[in-house]
Structure formats: structure tokens, C-alpha cells
Amino acid sequence: MVDVADVAKWVDSTVRRRNAKEALDRDARRAQVVQAAVDAIEEGGGQVGMGQIAERAGIPRPNVYRHFASKEQLDAEVARFAATELIRRVRPHLDRAGTPAEIVRGLIAPCVAWAAEHPHLFRFLAAQQQTKALHRARLGRTRLLSEIVDAARAYLSETPLSADPPEGVLVGMMAMVDASIIWWFDHHDETQDQLVDRLTRQVTAVLADTLAQYGLVLPDDVELRPGAGA
Fold first, then answer.
1. What is each CA distance from 80 to 92, 127, 137, 191, in whole angstroms?
2. What are the beta bridge partners of residue 98?
3. Mean pLDDT across the chain, nearest whole number?
4. How far apart are CA 133 and CA 75, in angstroms?
């Protein structure tokens, strides 16, 4: 005689496996669309349409909307993807020792290098900050500056630097970096090293001013080490 309870367990298990597989398939297709959008932007710039993205992804255009309700939603996901890639390039440099300028240069240099390798994607990412709805997604990349300050907390763990830096400082600093890099794309009136050097001086000056607001003044030649006081 068939045990109804056993049948119910089998059906429940089958349904759960099918639902899990469908969820994985949806995630894979969603990632496929995002990658297609990234590739299209890398090749032709940020003004790509859903039709181009769908063609690159190998799916009918209406199917894109099964995963993203609008182009704006897809743009936000592409911005998060690009932000993650940029931070991945920068993060290995967050635990280095050195003077404040050396530490900042160690973060600015890979940021500029990534931008140079992905100019269209960097332009796209920079433009998203101008859209209020995507501002939070863009902060994934603005974490670059938050992480600089997080690193300072590690170096200066015994100081009163405990609050998060004002968001406006981070956004303004990143806007300065963005504008300088995009100007460089368009004019190439500096070498890449000169651009990195200039941004290093400017970002270091802004960070020094922010730290000074906490009563913390760092000599230019102080050697900062992870986990150690100044």
C-alpha cells in the first residue's frame, strides 16, 4: 500500500529541487544579460539599447524584461557589477604600509589603471552618480574612499577616528577623481603617471583635512602600518 506521507515528502522534495533549479537558471540568465550589457558598453560606450544587449545575450528582446523591469534597473545592476570589479582591483592595496601619500597613491594608481583598461565602462559608471535613483548603487564604488578611511582606522586604531566620513566628502572626492580621469580620456594632457601623482596630492589633501576635523594631524612623512598607532 502506498504511504501517503511518503508520497507527499517525495512531491515536496521534487518541487523544492525544481524550484531551486529554476532559481539558479534565472540567476544564470540574469547574469548573462548583465555580462552582455557590460560587453556592449565596453565595445560601443554607454548609449546601448535593450535590443543590442538582447542580441549580444542571444535572447529575444522581450526576454530581457523577464529579468529587468526597465533599462534603469539593468543600468543599476551593471553599475554594481562595474563597482565590484573596480573595488576588487583596489582592495589588495588597502593593507599596505607607508606615508599617507604612498597609501593614497597605492589606491589611486589601480583605480586609474582600471579606468584606462575600461574607458567606456568607467564613463558609464561615472555617469550613474548623476542619477539620484542610482546614487546608492554608485556608492559601491565610492566605497573606495570609505575604505581608505577604514584603512586609516586600522592604522590609527587608538585615535578618535570612529565615525564614518560625511557622505558628501566621499561623493565630492570621487567626483573630482572621475572628472580628472574623464578629462584625461578626452585630452591626454598628462601622462598616466602624472594623473596619478596629481590625484594623489589632491585626495591626500582632502583626507588630511577630514582627519584634521577629528583633531588628528598627520606629518607628511609619518609611516603608517596596519593595526598600529601613529
1. 19, 13, 6, 29
2. 224
3. 79
4. 11
Q: Is residue 229 predicted with pLDDT exceeding 70? A: no
Closest by CA position to 140, among listed 91, 200, 195 = 91
Buried b (16+ CB within 10 A) or exposed e, 162-186: eeebeeebbbebbeebbebbbebee
CB 118 within 8 A of CB 42: yes
C-alpha torsion sign, points 208, 211, 215, 217: negative
Is the separation of the CB atoms in 161 and 214 below 8 Å? Answer: yes
Q: Does domain 72-212 have CATH number 3.40.1350?
A: no
> What confidence tens digit (pLDDT) does each residue in 128-185 have?
865 555 555 555 544 555 555 555 555 555 455 555 666 677 778 888 999 999 999 9
Q: Is the overall model pTM greater than 0.90, yes or no?
A: no
- Distance (Å, rounded) from C-alpha 8 to C-alpha 139? 47
pLDDT band, very low/low/confident/very high, at 207 (cuts 50, 70, 90): confident
Residues of the chain with CATH 1.10.10: 4-68
- What is the fold, at CATH topology level, of the domain defined by 4-68? Arc Repressor Mutant, subunit A (1.10.10)
Say yes or no to pLDDT of 230 above 50: no
Check: CB of residue 33 under 8 Å from CB of residue 58: no
